[in-house]
Amino acid sequence: MAYCFQCGTELNEKSLENNLRLICPECGWVYYPQLKVSAAGLIEMEGSLLLVRRNTQPWLGAWYLPAGYVEADEDPAIAAAREVREETGLIIHPTVLFGSYYFDDDPRGKGLLLVYHCDVLEGNITINDEVDAVGFFHPASLPKQLTGAGHDRAIKEWASRQEVWQGQWRQGIKH
Q1: What pTM was computed for the model?
Q2: Cα 61–Cα 62–Cα 64 angle in degrees, nearest 5
Q3: Which of 6, 75, 144, 175 could make an S-S bridge to 29, C-beta 3.0–4.6 Å?
Q4: Chain-centroid distance, C-alpha 86
């Protein structure tokens, strides 16, 4: 963002409301940066979680939930389904929101990751250029290298919920 959306004048950085903002010196228009929104699919099979390994920067070689940025005219659940299909080849149906995770560790910008539980409808696992591996991981055997941008926290939350659920199952508490 370098020029005013209202009048086209070059923006200047100034302090406003205790934050540095880009402000138009001509008309006073203020640019308020917004969070990036990304959506992910949480796919479980027999107590294991589907993860993909990044083949691009940032986090090259790290594991994450199949995910990507939500386009401006796209429902986040539809974005999650699109990203899962692009990265794994699976056709899924997002069901309920598992969680939302604010992140400020992505070099592309701060954002919000929305993670949806998903049912697999059809497809065989394939990969694209962004991904070089796909796998299912049990909570006790998650890969050590996880991406940031909320994925690490979402994956660890899923694992801790699985451990609690399995502990309750062993004690005879049925869900």
Answers
A1: 0.85
A2: 135
A3: 6
A4: 14
